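Sequence, please.
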């Protein structure tokens, strides 16, 4: 009796089925590796939700900018350009084409926006919190934390 059969107390034909299934999986994986696939290393971690980022971006395109005459100048970010900048960078991340220099710009913009939100009027804050959520999720996708 094979070692596998003894360990799991399975009948001999199950061991044959197991070996055939294992050979089939090894063949598929070998083919994938030959095609350039790299098996994951380290502990598995769920991938950040690209679908969620896409939904957030779609929602941001339908939101109205909170025009409040003269009240949006925080001095830290330009409220009229921070949205298009963050959304444009997030789109590039989803497309897989954000350069390291531009990634740094997104990180800086996220930090400046985080500091600016309390300075905006209450009626405008939800708009900018939404942008901050987009920036945060985009950064998680672009530069996942190292374990």
């Amino acid at each position: 009796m094979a070692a596998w059969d003894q360990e799991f107390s399975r009948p001999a034909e199950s061991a044959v089925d197991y070996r055939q299934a294992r050979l089939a999986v090894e063949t598929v994986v070998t083919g994938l590796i030959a095609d350039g696939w790299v098996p994951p290393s380290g502990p598995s971690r769920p991938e950040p939700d690209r679908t969620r980022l896409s939904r957030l971006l779609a929602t941001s395109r339908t939101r109205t900018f909170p025009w409040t005459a003269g009240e949006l100048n925080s001095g830290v970010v330009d409220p009229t350009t921070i949205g298009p900048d963050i959304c444009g960078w997030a789109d590039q991340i989803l497309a897989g084409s954000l350069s390291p220099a531009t990634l740094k710009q997104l990180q800086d913009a996220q930090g400046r926006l985080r500091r600016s939100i309390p300075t905006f009027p209450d009626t405008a804050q939800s708009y900018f919190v939404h942008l901050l959520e987009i920036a945060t999720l985009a950064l998680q996708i672009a530069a996942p934390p190292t374990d």
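The chain has a mean pLDDT of 77.
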